[in-house]
Amino acid sequence: MSTPVGADPVVVGPYLAAVLNDERWRSVDVELIAAGMSNLTYVVTPLGGDGGRDEDAAVILRRPPTGAVLATAHDMAREHRVISALGPTDVPVPRTLHLCTDESVLGAPFYVMERVVGIHVVRDFPAGYADRPEQRRAVGETLVDVLADLHSVDHEAVGLAEFGRPEGFAARQVRRWTKQWDATRDRDRPNLDALAARLAETVPATQRSSIVHGDYRLDNCLLDPDEPGRIKAVLDWEMSTLGDPLTDIGMMFVYWPQAGEERASTMSPVTTLPGFPTRAEVAERYARRTGADLADLNWYVGFAFFKFAAIIAGIVARSAAGAMAGKDTSGYADRIDPCVELGRAALEDGAI
To answer: pTM score, two decimals?
Structure first.
């Protein structure tokens, strides 16, 4: 039995056996998934009396990082709440099983959800999967459609009327991420400060409000192993709230390089592969699905690159403090300035 940081199987097993009322959880194996730079995600697998693993019964446990975190980050109850609320909707999410707010159990709140088996794409597709252009286009278009479905959910009807404060959301987001950058700055970066100031001066009027994911992208989704054009689950809801849905489009574009582009700021070249729609095609499809006016899209893209730069700065700071559970963050600081330039180009030159 492994003993990963933050989720001791000797504690997790008996606890799950009690709260799930199922003795097969009494003895478990816990494995930290080596992906993500924020909340920690574990696969918890029950062990039989002979020590055999019951992979079909495995569940997922999510908890905050084990080191110090920003006060408003890593709220397990919020993440559990939004996933639970979206369960009956068209948005594909895992089924939640349990929320624990008693910090004496694992040292922090955590929740447990079903394990969804799917294809997790980070830097490339697995060999033999989505290897035809039409399949890759289907993946890209489905990403847009699922986001449009999320933004069309009646948040009051699913019990999320008080999930956020949509009024003044965009301006408040600029202030929030400026504050986060100030709290985690590694050195003077005047161009980043200038981008923050310019964004604050040019906040567009919000057209509508909806549930926003906050970090929507391909590698926060699980794809159907048998049908590339189908998303089985959208994951990582820690930044979700009620707000301006165009902030999700802007953030998705940060992670959407096109053929011929090499962006040092982004982590995956998947969307440069033949078949993927361009960012302009993504915008057109989203506008057609939702009726949204995208005249101010360049502001949202500029803000997204600013937010991404602030997120990277936070990762660099947590890594320096030893709070990244052994994850490799080398080179992350070098991504900040390219993000700032892409944000400036979006805001001032209209580049999306």
So the answer is: 0.90
